[in-house]
Amino acid sequence: MAKPPVCKIMDYGKFKYETKKKANEAKKKQTVVKLKEVKFRPKTEEHDYGFKTKAIREFLSEGNKARCTVMFRGREITHREIGQAILTRISQDLKDIAVVEQSPRLEGRLLFMILAPNPRWLQSQRAKAAPSAAASQRPPQPPHRRASTGMAQPN
């Protein structure tokens, strides 16, 4: 304890205002990760599979997580190995950009797994994007002026 005791006299309203401003600044800088879902079926054809994995790739490149779901209907549930094969194929196809956050799990008639973007890959993507973003921002051009002819210009 200091002798004599030291205290700071301050405006409480100003203090509250500044703390609120700091909280808002911190909130602007944080990123919200969303969970996007892509649904497959045991009979999903090759073109549809490619299209959906491309969508998963886009979700992961945006920094979001992806939930891959295989839906079983009717008697399809007896062949869970088909759904497992689809999910393992997805994880193999996307292993360069994604990590499996939650391994395949069966809940009722849904077999799903959650993929998260690979932190190293995401960091390299941001590093590539930073120089191109800086190059695209050109300095502002001065406004174009007409050449003076000595005559009055109509407005």
Outline the structure in words.
The chain has 155 residues and is an alpha+beta fold. It has a domain of 95 residues: Translation initiation factor 3 (IF-3), C-terminal domain (Translation Initiation Factor IF3), CATH 3.30.110. It is built from 4 helices and 4 strands; from the N terminus they run αβαβαββα. A 4-stranded mixed beta sheet has the order 1-2-4-3.
The total count of helices amounts to 4
Task: Tell me the name of the CATH class of the domain at 33-127.
Answer: Alpha Beta
Largest sheet: 4 strands, mixed
Unreliable residue runs: none
Note the beta-strand portion.
15-25%
Residues in helices, as a percent range? 40-55%
The CATH topology of the domain at 33-127 corresponds to Translation Initiation Factor IF3
Strand order of the largest sheet: 1-2-4-3
Rounded Rg: 28 Å
CATH superfamily annotation of the domain at 33-127: Translation initiation factor 3 (IF-3), C-terminal domain
Number of strands: 4
Residue-averaged pLDDT, rounded?
84
Task: Pick out its properties.
Translation Initiation Factor IF3, 4 helices, flat, single chain, alpha+beta, 155 residues, four-stranded mixed β-sheet, 43% helix
Topology:
Elements: H1 12-29, E1 35-40, H2 46-61, E2 65-71, H3 80-93, E3 98-107, E4 110-117, H4 119-136
Parallel strand pairs: 1-2
Antiparallel strand pairs: 2-4, 3-4
